[in-house]
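Is this the right way to post C-alpha coordinates for a design question? Let me know if I should format differently. Anyway, here goes:
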Protein backbone atom coordinates (compact mmCIF):
# COMPACT_ATOMS: atom_id res chain seq x y z
CA UNK A 1 0.00 0.00 0.00
CA UNK A 2 1.04 3.62 -0.44
CA UNK A 3 1.17 5.88 2.61
CA UNK A 4 -0.54 9.28 2.28
CA UNK A 5 1.73 12.26 2.84
CA UNK A 6 -0.52 13.40 5.71
CA UNK A 7 -0.52 10.09 7.59
CA UNK A 8 -0.13 10.85 11.31
CA UNK A 9 2.26 7.96 11.79
CA UNK A 10 4.61 9.52 9.25
CA UNK A 11 4.22 13.12 10.40
CA UNK A 12 3.89 12.71 14.17
CA UNK A 13 4.85 9.14 15.09
CA UNK A 14 1.19 8.65 16.05
CA UNK A 15 0.73 4.90 15.98
CA UNK A 16 2.08 1.53 17.03
CA UNK A 17 3.91 -1.43 15.58
CA UNK A 18 4.80 -5.01 16.41
CA UNK A 19 7.72 -7.04 15.09
CA UNK A 20 7.28 -10.81 15.13
CA UNK A 21 9.38 -13.75 14.06
CA UNK A 22 7.67 -15.85 11.41
CA UNK A 23 8.96 -19.35 10.64
CA UNK A 24 7.78 -21.09 7.46
CA UNK A 25 4.94 -18.59 7.14
CA UNK A 26 3.69 -18.97 10.72
CA UNK A 27 4.09 -15.95 13.04
CA UNK A 28 5.42 -16.84 16.49
CA UNK A 29 3.74 -15.62 19.69
CA UNK A 30 0.96 -14.02 17.66
CA UNK A 31 -1.52 -13.75 20.54
CA UNK A 32 1.00 -12.11 22.88
CA UNK A 33 2.03 -9.54 20.28
CA UNK A 34 -1.54 -8.70 19.34
CA UNK A 35 -2.50 -8.38 23.01
CA UNK A 36 0.34 -5.89 23.46
CA UNK A 37 -0.82 -4.00 20.38
CA UNK A 38 -4.33 -3.76 21.86
CA UNK A 39 -2.94 -2.46 25.15
CA UNK A 40 -1.01 0.15 23.21
CA UNK A 41 -4.14 1.18 21.36
CA UNK A 42 -5.96 1.66 24.67
CA UNK A 43 -3.10 3.78 26.03
CA UNK A 44 -2.95 5.96 22.90
CA UNK A 45 -6.71 6.24 22.47
CA UNK A 46 -6.75 4.36 19.17
CA UNK A 47 -9.30 1.76 18.09
CA UNK A 48 -7.86 -1.74 17.94
CA UNK A 49 -7.39 -3.35 14.52
CA UNK A 50 -9.63 -6.17 13.39
CA UNK A 51 -8.11 -9.62 14.03
CA UNK A 52 -9.10 -10.96 10.60
CA UNK A 53 -7.54 -7.95 8.85
CA UNK A 54 -4.37 -8.30 10.93
CA UNK A 55 -3.90 -11.94 9.95
CA UNK A 56 -4.65 -11.21 6.31
CA UNK A 57 -2.12 -8.37 6.23
CA UNK A 58 0.53 -10.55 7.88
CA UNK A 59 0.08 -13.43 5.45
CA UNK A 60 -0.01 -11.08 2.46
CA UNK A 61 3.26 -9.46 3.56
CA UNK A 62 5.00 -12.83 3.93
CA UNK A 63 3.71 -14.03 0.56
CA UNK A 64 4.64 -10.79 -1.22
CA UNK A 65 8.20 -11.01 0.13
CA UNK A 66 8.49 -14.68 -0.86
CA UNK A 67 8.98 -15.66 2.77
CA UNK A 68 6.48 -18.50 3.11
CA UNK A 69 9.47 -20.64 4.13
CA UNK A 70 12.41 -19.88 6.39
CA UNK A 71 12.75 -17.20 9.03
CA UNK A 72 11.23 -13.77 8.52
CA UNK A 73 10.88 -10.52 10.43
CA UNK A 74 7.21 -9.58 10.17
CA UNK A 75 6.32 -6.00 11.04
CA UNK A 76 2.75 -4.87 11.53
CA UNK A 77 2.15 -1.11 11.69
CA UNK A 78 -1.04 0.60 12.86
CA UNK A 79 -1.05 4.37 12.35
CA UNK A 80 -3.62 6.95 13.44
CA UNK A 81 -4.37 7.48 9.75
CA UNK A 82 -4.65 10.67 7.79
CA UNK A 83 -5.53 13.95 9.41
CA UNK A 84 -5.22 17.62 8.70
CA UNK A 85 -2.43 19.82 9.92
CA UNK A 86 -1.82 20.01 13.70
CA UNK A 87 -1.88 17.71 16.71
CA UNK A 88 -5.58 16.98 17.05
CA UNK A 89 -6.77 13.74 15.49
CA UNK A 90 -9.75 13.94 13.20
CA UNK A 91 -13.02 12.52 14.49
CA UNK A 92 -13.74 9.80 13.78
CA UNK A 93 -10.19 8.44 13.63
CA UNK A 94 -9.55 6.18 10.63
CA UNK A 95 -6.34 4.20 11.34
CA UNK A 96 -4.20 2.69 8.60
CA UNK A 97 -2.86 -0.87 8.73
CA UNK A 98 0.08 -2.20 6.77
CA UNK A 99 2.55 -5.06 7.13
CA UNK A 100 5.99 -5.82 5.72
CA UNK A 101 8.32 -8.81 5.88
CA UNK A 102 12.09 -9.26 5.48
CA UNK A 103 14.52 -12.17 5.90
CA UNK A 104 15.67 -12.75 9.49
CA UNK A 105 18.59 -15.21 9.51
CA UNK A 106 19.27 -16.84 12.87
CA UNK A 107 22.31 -15.51 14.70
CA UNK A 108 23.89 -16.31 18.03
CA UNK A 109 26.96 -14.10 17.65
CA UNK A 110 27.80 -12.39 20.96
CA UNK A 111 27.14 -8.66 21.12
CA UNK A 112 29.49 -5.83 21.99
CA UNK A 113 27.59 -3.20 24.00
CA UNK A 114 28.31 0.40 24.90
CA UNK A 115 26.37 2.67 27.22
CA UNK A 116 24.71 5.39 25.16
CA UNK A 117 24.40 9.04 26.12
CA UNK A 118 20.84 9.08 24.75
CA UNK A 119 18.44 8.55 27.64
CA UNK A 120 15.05 6.85 27.74
CA UNK A 121 12.19 8.90 29.17
CA UNK A 122 10.95 6.65 31.94
CA UNK A 123 7.82 8.72 32.45
CA UNK A 124 6.66 8.69 28.84
CA UNK A 125 3.88 6.50 27.45
CA UNK A 126 6.04 6.18 24.33
CA UNK A 127 8.65 4.32 26.40
CA UNK A 128 6.14 1.77 27.67
CA UNK A 129 4.49 0.92 24.36
CA UNK A 130 5.83 0.05 20.92
CA UNK A 131 4.96 3.37 19.34
CA UNK A 132 6.16 4.76 16.03
CA UNK A 133 8.16 7.37 18.01
CA UNK A 134 11.47 5.49 18.01
CA UNK A 135 14.00 8.27 17.50
CA UNK A 136 15.74 7.82 20.88
CA UNK A 137 16.38 4.17 20.02
CA UNK A 138 17.67 5.14 16.59
CA UNK A 139 20.10 7.65 18.10
CA UNK A 140 21.29 5.20 20.77
CA UNK A 141 21.99 2.54 18.15
CA UNK A 142 23.83 5.14 16.04
CA UNK A 143 26.04 5.93 19.04
CA UNK A 144 26.85 2.26 19.42
CA UNK A 145 27.76 1.84 15.76
CA UNK A 146 29.96 4.92 15.80
CA UNK A 147 31.76 3.48 18.83
CA UNK A 148 32.43 0.21 16.98
CA UNK A 149 29.86 -1.74 18.99
CA UNK A 150 26.80 -3.75 17.96
CA UNK A 151 24.18 -2.47 20.36
CA UNK A 152 23.54 0.24 22.96
CA UNK A 153 22.58 0.10 26.61
CA UNK A 154 20.12 2.88 27.40
CA UNK A 155 19.71 4.45 30.83
CA UNK A 156 16.51 6.27 31.72
CA UNK A 157 16.24 9.89 32.79
CA UNK A 158 16.61 8.82 36.44
CA UNK A 159 19.94 7.18 35.66
CA UNK A 160 18.65 3.62 35.97
CA UNK A 161 19.50 0.87 33.51
CA UNK A 162 16.58 0.59 31.08
CA UNK A 163 17.09 -1.52 27.97
CA UNK A 164 19.00 -2.06 24.77
CA UNK A 165 18.15 0.01 21.72
CA UNK A 166 16.32 -3.01 20.29
CA UNK A 167 15.61 -5.38 23.14
CA UNK A 168 15.38 -6.04 26.84
CA UNK A 169 18.46 -6.48 29.04
CA UNK A 170 19.28 -9.29 31.47
CA UNK A 171 22.41 -9.71 33.56
CA UNK A 172 23.75 -12.26 36.01
CA UNK A 173 25.34 -11.43 39.35
CA UNK A 174 26.14 -14.08 41.95
CA UNK A 175 24.07 -16.67 40.12
CA UNK A 176 21.01 -14.39 40.16
CA UNK A 177 19.26 -13.25 36.98
CA UNK A 178 18.30 -9.56 36.96
CA UNK A 179 16.40 -7.31 34.55
CA UNK A 180 15.08 -3.72 34.74
CA UNK A 181 11.56 -3.41 36.10
CA UNK A 182 8.76 -2.04 33.94
CA UNK A 183 8.81 1.04 36.19
CA UNK A 184 12.08 2.01 34.49
CA UNK A 185 10.07 2.97 31.41
CA UNK A 186 10.79 -0.08 29.28
CA UNK A 187 8.81 -2.10 26.81
CA UNK A 188 7.11 -5.17 28.23
CA UNK A 189 8.92 -7.48 25.83
CA UNK A 190 7.22 -10.69 24.72
CA UNK A 191 10.50 -12.60 24.97
CA UNK A 192 11.28 -10.87 28.29
CA UNK A 193 8.08 -12.34 29.73
CA UNK A 194 9.01 -15.78 28.44
CA UNK A 195 12.45 -15.55 30.08
CA UNK A 196 10.92 -14.59 33.42
CA UNK A 197 8.49 -17.52 33.18
CA UNK A 198 11.27 -19.94 32.23
CA UNK A 199 13.47 -18.80 35.13
CA UNK A 200 10.64 -19.31 37.59
CA UNK A 201 9.96 -22.83 36.31
CA UNK A 202 13.66 -23.73 36.08
CA UNK A 203 14.40 -22.61 39.62
CA UNK A 204 16.73 -19.82 38.52
CA UNK A 205 16.63 -16.89 40.98
CA UNK A 206 15.30 -13.89 39.06
CA UNK A 207 14.29 -10.34 39.98
CA UNK A 208 13.05 -7.19 38.29
CA UNK A 209 14.96 -4.23 39.63
CA UNK A 210 15.77 -0.53 39.43
CA UNK A 211 19.54 -0.32 39.25
CA UNK A 212 22.21 2.13 38.20
CA UNK A 213 25.15 1.51 35.85
CA UNK A 214 27.19 0.14 38.76
CA UNK A 215 25.02 -2.98 38.65
CA UNK A 216 26.20 -3.70 35.13
CA UNK A 217 29.80 -3.04 36.12
CA UNK A 218 29.45 -5.87 38.65
CA UNK A 219 27.68 -8.22 36.24
CA UNK A 220 29.34 -11.52 35.37
CA UNK A 221 27.29 -12.14 32.23
CA UNK A 222 24.63 -10.38 30.15
CA UNK A 223 22.24 -11.09 27.31
CA UNK A 224 19.75 -9.15 25.21
CA UNK A 225 16.32 -10.47 24.28
CA UNK A 226 13.89 -9.70 21.49
CA UNK A 227 11.43 -11.62 19.36
CA UNK A 228 13.76 -12.06 16.39
CA UNK A 229 16.97 -13.19 18.10
CA UNK A 230 15.73 -14.82 21.30
CA UNK A 231 18.38 -14.49 24.00
CA UNK A 232 21.64 -13.20 22.51
CA UNK A 233 24.79 -13.25 24.68
CA UNK A 234 26.93 -10.19 25.35
CA UNK A 235 30.68 -10.49 25.07
CA UNK A 236 31.61 -7.02 26.32
CA UNK A 237 30.18 -3.85 27.82
CA UNK A 238 32.06 -0.57 27.37
CA UNK A 239 35.17 -2.60 26.55
CA UNK A 240 34.96 -4.88 29.62
CA UNK A 241 34.84 -8.57 28.75
CA UNK A 242 31.96 -10.60 30.14
CA UNK A 243 31.71 -14.32 30.79
CA UNK A 244 29.30 -16.73 29.13
CA UNK A 245 26.35 -17.65 31.33
CA UNK A 246 26.05 -21.45 31.66
CA UNK A 247 22.25 -21.27 31.79
CA UNK A 248 21.94 -19.57 28.38
CA UNK A 249 21.93 -22.78 26.37
CA UNK A 250 18.97 -24.19 28.29
CA UNK A 251 17.14 -20.86 28.04
CA UNK A 252 17.74 -20.62 24.29
CA UNK A 253 16.46 -24.16 23.81
CA UNK A 254 13.29 -23.26 25.73
CA UNK A 255 12.76 -20.16 23.59
CA UNK A 256 13.31 -21.97 20.27
Amino acid sequence: MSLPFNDRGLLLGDGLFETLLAVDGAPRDWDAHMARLSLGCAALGLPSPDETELRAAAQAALASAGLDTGRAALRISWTAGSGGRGLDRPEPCAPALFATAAPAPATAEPLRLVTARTRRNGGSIASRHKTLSYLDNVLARREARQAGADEAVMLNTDGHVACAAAGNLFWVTGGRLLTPSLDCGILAGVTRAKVLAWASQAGVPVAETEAGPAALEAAEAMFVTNSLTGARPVQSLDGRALSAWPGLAALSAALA
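Format looks fine. Someone answered above. Worth noting: The longest strand covers residues 15-23. The mean pLDDT is 96.
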